[in-house]
Request: fold
Amino acid sequence: MSQELQKNSIFKVIGASSLGTLIEWYDFYIFGSLASIIGAQLFPADAGASALINTLAIFAAGFIVRPFGALVFGRLGDLIGRKYTFLLTLVLMGGSTFLIGLIPSYSSIGYAAPILVLILRLVQGLALGGEYGGAATYVAEHAPSNKRGFFTSWIQTTATGGLFLSLGIIVLTKNLIGATGFADWGWRIPFLLSILLVGVSIYIRLKMHESPMFTKLKTEGKVSKNPLKESFNNKANFKMVLLALFGATMGQGVIWYTGQFYAQSFIENTCKVDFNDSRYILLWGIAFATPFFVVFGSWSDKVGRKWIMLTGMLLGIIFYRPIYQIFLDDTDFTKVTQQDIQSVSDPVVTRTLVEGTADSLISTSARVTLLSGASYQKIQSHIEFKEKRKASAVQPDLLKDKQLSTAVFWKFVALVFFQILLVTMVYGPIAAFLVELFPTKIRYTSMSLPYHVGNGVFGGLVPFIATLIASYSGSTPLSGLWYPIGIASLSFVIGAIYLSNKKPVETEA
Amino acid sequence: MNGLKKRLGLLWMILGPASIIFMFLQAYEKVGLAAEGVQKTNTALQWGIILFIFIPISAGLVIFGYYALKGEYDQLPSGSEEPKG
Reply:
C-alpha cells in the first residue's frame, strides 16, 4: 500500500472513531450542563436546593459506573473485537440519551421520573466506560508506533469537543426558544438531537474494518480467553494497571475536570457571573486550546509521554490557587464606590412570605452598571415581622448575574485557556501512553480500567468533592482546590519516580 | 532511584488505610452536621458512595506500595509485550 493510501486510511479511521466518541461525550455532558433545569422537572416543585443536589447525584452516578463499563465492554472488546464493541456502546449511549429527552416530568409520573433517569444515566456511564478505550485502542492499532501520540491525540480532542458541542447547543437552543420555553420543554431538544448524531456515526462505523492487530491475533488463534483474569490476576500486568492509575490517570483526571468543569462552576456559582457569560468564557477557552491536544500528542512522539504529562500536573499544582484568587478578586463588586457607577435601573420591589411564618421578605432589586462596562444585579432585602414590636431584620446584600467588562471577560478567557492548555498537556499523550503499557490481547480491558477510575472517579468527583470541602466551617472559596492539588501532587510524585520515559521506535502498524 | 522507589512503597502502604480512616472520620463528623440541617451536601448517602468508591482504590494503593517495596517497579518492561505472569 502506498504511503498516501495509508495516510488516507488512517485519517478515515480517526474520523470515524472520533465522531462517535465525540457524540458519546456530548451525550454524557449535556446532563451536567442542564442539571438545574432537569432537577426542576424530575423532583417535586417544593424540593428547592435538594432537587439540584439529587440531580447532581444522578449525574455523578454516571461517572461512578464508568469503571464497570470499562470492565464489561473492555472484556467484550478483547474477546470479539474492537469494532463491534464500540458500535454497541454507541447504540446504548445514543438510545439512553434519546430516552432521557422523552421522560415525563415528576408532575406526570411522580418518583418514577427520577428513577428512570437514574437507570438511563447508569447505562450512559457504562457505555462511555466501554467507548473510549475501544476508540483509543482502535486508532492506536492502526497507527505506526512512532506516530501513535499524534494519531491518538485526535481521539483526545473528542472529550473537550463533546463538552464544547453540548455547551454550544444548549446556549443556542436557549437563545432561540427563550429562557421560559427552554426550562419548560426546550431542554429536551439537546437530548433528542443525539439520536440523529448517533445514527450518522453508526452508519460510518459500520463501514469500518476491524483493527489489524486484533485481526492478526484472531487469525493466529491468540485472542485472550479470559481478558479479566489475564489483566488483573497476572502480577506483571496488574502492577502496570496500578502504575497507570496512580502515576498518570489519577492526576490527569483532576486536571481535566478542574480546568473544564470546576472553572465554569466556580465562575458561575461562586463568583456569580451570569449563565451565558460563564459558558462563553469556557467556550472561547476550549476553542483556543483544543489544537494543543494534537500539538502535545505529536510532541510526545519525539520526547516521550512522561514529562509532558507531569509538567501539566505540576503547573496546575502551582497556578490553580493564584488563578482562582483572580477570579474572586475581579468579580468582587462589594467595594464599588459611587464614582465607579454609571447608572442604576429603577428598583423593583417584591414581597414574599417567609416559609412557615406570617413574616414577609421584602426585596429591592436593581441593575447596577459600572463605568468599566461591568454590571450586576443588586438585591437588598429585609424581613418584616408580623409582630410590629420586633425590628425588621436586614439581610446581607446579594450581588448576582454579574456581567464582566470586556477586559475582564478576556482576562478570564485567557485564564481558562491556560487551564485547558494544562489539560491538553496531561490528556493529549495519555491514550498513546496507556496503549503502549499493555499487550494487544488484553489492551482494551487493561487500559480502560485505570483510565475510567482516574478520569471518571477522581476527575468526575472534582466538582462534588471541591464543593463539599468549600462548605466546611472555616473554609474559604478556594479551599475546594486542595482536592485537585492534593491528588495531582500525589500523582506527580508517583509518576516522576516510577514511570519511565520511553520514546517510541518506528514500526509499521 | 530503586532504593527510593522501595522506601516510598512503605509510604503508599500506609497512605492507603490512612486516607480511608481520615474519610471515615470526616463522614462521621459531617453527616452529624447534615442531621441538624446545617450542611445539605453532607448526607449519609453521599458519604456512603464516596467511601464505597475509595475503599477499593485505597486497597489498590496498598498493593501498589507492596509491589514497590518488593522491587517490582525497579525494572519496567521496555514495551507492551505479552505479560510473563
Q: What stands out?
A: Chain A has two domains: 3-331+405-498, 338-403.
